[in-house]
Amino acid sequence: MERLADEVFYIMFLNRSALLNLNLYLAGYVQQLSLDFETEDGDDGGTVDLHKLLKREGVLRRKSPPEWARRAVFFRDRGCCVACHRDLTGLLSLLSKKNFDHMVPLAQGGLNDITNLQLLCDKCNLEKSDKTVATSSQYQLWYG
Ligand SMILES: [Zn+2]
């Protein structure tokens, strides 16, 4: 099962449009999360304190993506802004977090998850703001 999950992730991770749809679907659940529920069952059978997870009702707190996630997104998006295709390879340090945009903004119920991240240049990230849900379905060719 773990190997199958790895293979599905490998295929899906390349498709930003599919990931955007997945994250829009999941955002519907996040937006229903309420601070009234103090605890909820976690995966490990423990409890999850929603006050630690939520900034406010239906909105998760921002968490910086870990370096492995930034590397994976940078590699998938081939070092270019997905909106304007500006080459960021010479401009962007992987340590910089500001160019890793949430396709579905946290304010719209988006997740702090690698499947919700994309690479944007400063200008496009500023224009997108936290009200816009967007990605590009244009992909760079692997050839030519
Ligand atoms: Zn751009």
Structure description:
There is one protein chain. With 144 residues, the protein is an alpha+beta fold. The protein has one domain. The protein is 33% helix and 12% strand. The chain is built from five helices and six strands. The protein has helices at 2-13, 16-30, 50-53, 67-76, 122-128; strands spanning 39-41, 47-49, 54-56, 59-60, 100-102, 117-119. A hairpin with a 2-residue loop joins strand 3 and strand 4 (59-60). The structure holds zinc ion (ZN). Zinc ion (ZN) binds next to helix 5.
In total, how many beta strands? 6
Question: Order of helices and strands, N to C?
Answer: HHEEHEEHEEH
- Describe the biggest sheet? 2 strands, antiparallel
Task: Count up the domains.
Answer: 1
User: Counting H and I runs of at least 4 residues, what is the number of helices?
Assistant: 5
Short description:
The protein is α+β, with helices and mostly antiparallel strands and 144 residues long. It has 5 helices and 6 strands.
Name its key features.
alpha+beta, two-stranded antiparallel ribbon, binds zinc ion
SSE map:
Elements: H1 2-13, H2 16-30, E1 39-41, E2 47-49, H3 50-53, E3 54-56, E4 59-60, H4 67-76, E5 100-102, E6 117-119, H5 122-128
Antiparallel strand pairs: 1-2, 3-4, 5-6
Bound molecules: zinc ion (ZN).
InterPro entries: HNH, HNH_nuc, NA-targeting_endonuclease
Domain HNH nuclease: 68-126
Protein name: HNH nuclease domain-containing protein
